[in-house]
Amino acid sequence: MKQIILLISILLIVTSHSQGGELSGQVTVKHFSENKWIDAPNNANVVVFLLGFEEPPDIPDRYLDQENKAFHTSVLAISKGQRVIFRNKDPINHNIFSLSKAKTFDLGLYKAPIEKSVTFNRPGLVKVFCNIHHQMNADILVLKNNKYAVTGADGKYRIEGIPTGKHKVRVWAQGSKIQSQPLVVTADSKHTQNFTVRVRQRTLKHLNKFGKPYKEY
Question: Which tens digit of pLDDT belongs to each residue from 66-97?
């Protein structure tokens, strides 16, 4: 009986320490307007992620839907090796493509209910467009591990299960410079880091997959 109790205790300790550290905090987004920095309407679509280690994807697939001539999100963070399924929910054709160094692809013409997929095996930023609709654009940030979070409108984030050791925390948003802070994690340690992200207005002008201006539809 004592051996069983001892074994259970050891398993509980091992399980507890295998959960890793935790990082949480608040991200505040500011826009540059009328020669000054002001608070943005919301703090969404900022990616907070960890460097210093690699791990396989936690789930095989992610989704980036097209609906009402738009991507359902302008920022998608994924792990290296994950597959992104591009579901067209519109009754019209889209042609999703990217010319990015991290991943180049062209899905051709397709409409609802067809879906197509791409596997991303190289870390980096992949800028995604539609060859028909100029306004459709999204960024896929391919990371080396699963320890990341994408902020919602409230700007809060939480990353759990961080392995022990020395890491770097990085913060990325569309139209801003990447921020980097050190982080030392011990078993079950909890950390708080808040960030302010300054985003300048981006130009959305780009050419189609043939390097030519878009036609009006």
Answer: 999 999 999 999 999 999 999 999 999 999 99
Give the type of residue at 133. H
Output helix, strand, coil percentages for the chain, rounded to the nearest 5.
10, 45, 45
Cα 148 from Cα 161, distance rounded (Å): 11
Measured distance CA(170)–CA(167) in Å, rounded: 10
Of 201 and 185, the structure prediction assigns the larger pLDDT to 185
Note whether 25 and 95 are same-domain residues: no
Q: How far apart are CA 34 and CA 170, in angstroms?
A: 29
Range(s) of the domain holding residue 85:
56-143
Report which secondary-structure segment, H or E, holds 160.
strand 156-162
Condensed to tens digits (0 to 9), the pLDDT of residues 31-45 reads 988 889 999 999 999
The domain boundary residue, chosen from 143, 173, 197: 143
Number of structural domains found in the chain: 2
Q: Is 6 inside a domain boundary?
A: no
Domain membership of residue 72 (yes or no) is: yes
Whether 50 shows a pLDDT value over 50: the answer reads yes
* CB proximity list for 170: less than 8 A, separation 6 or greater: 48, 49, 50, 51, 178, 179, 180
Q: Which of 102, 99, 86, 101 is closest to 142 using CA atoms?
A: 102
Helix (H) or strand (E) holding 15: helix 2-18
